[in-house]
Amino acid sequence: MGDYKFEHSGTSEGHPVTNGLCSTKILRYHTRTSRVRLPPAAPKNRMSGERLHRREMVLFGQMLHQRGYVAATDGNLSVRLGDERIMVTPTGMSKSMLRASDMVVVDLEGRWLAGNRHVSSELAMHLLIYRLRADVKGIVHAHPPTATGFAAAGLPLNQPLVCEVVIGLGSIPLAKYGTPGTPELSDALEPLVPQYDAILMSNHGVVSYADTLHHAYMKMETVEHFAQIALVTHLLGRQQPLSEEDLEKLKLARTKYQGASSAAQPCSIVAGNNHGRSHANASSLRIENEIRSRSKDFRSPLKANS
After folding, report:
1. Is residue 146 located within the same domain as residue 24?
2. What is the separation of C-alpha 233 from the centre of its chain, rounded to a whole number of angstroms?
3. 138 occurs within a structural domain
4. What is the count of structural domains for the chain?
5. Which helix H or strand E contains 215, and what residues bound it?
6. Per residue in 76-120, pLDDT tens?
7. Is 135 inside a domain boundary?
8. pTM reported for the whole predicted model
9. Crossing angle, helix 49-66 and helix 213-236, to 10 degrees?
10. In this structure, are 53 and 153 located in the same domain?
11. Phi–psi pair at 86, nearest 5 degrees
12. How wide is the angle at C-alpha 192 spanned by C-alphas 189 and 198, nearest 5°?
């Protein structure tokens, strides 16, 4: 048999080899006829969960700003850290300029635990959602222009127009206006949080939440994309909602999709269509009448010149 030995690549610093492996070094097995290079062992110190969450909050804050969902110091994000702590973005900072060290950690009562900055003034909204929804681990609040336009017009996004939105979110209701940073806002959201995963806030913006911050952010994108589609249907002067039969099929399909992993009840897909409907229909009718009126005004000079 040939001679063989274990050899470290790099310096061993006198540390013994454990089970033939060293966690940070590559060992080489030598014989007279072959050399086998063993893969490096997994690093001992993986990135901590809190550090990862900090990086995610920086990333999604930048994405909100890049997509135009927030301006100046608008918006806020948060993540649940275990059962007793919440990490939140600070107040008074652009979401495009956040650093991992800027985040603030509080307990479930909103008491400061760690961080060098002041916590978001809308912390109460985040704490309310975490209290009412044990499944929620991440929250995003922003002001995406089209969806916020619907909120400012008093129009919920509650018509089942696109199957992917029905599967991912069900319905997107409109909460009554509440002054930001006051109990009014939490009071307006409280009846809706258990049933929905994204809510329009009258004359304010949108809040979305999910089992991860990543999924909460994607729900925000879905809300804004759907708002753009709904706006086009208003401009065209008609909508073609999905039928009750189609909605029942989508409720069954909803459980198969990752984005639908939520404590919000699938029945909100149908029930949500009644929330604010009378006010929404009246507003929609006014918009459509205005569009038709302007279209007639535009066509009249064309006919006169023909």
Report:
1. no
2. 25
3. yes
4. 2
5. helix 213-236
6. 999 999 889 999 999 999 999 999 999 999 999 999 999 999 999
7. yes
8. 0.73
9. 20
10. yes
11. -130, 135
12. 85
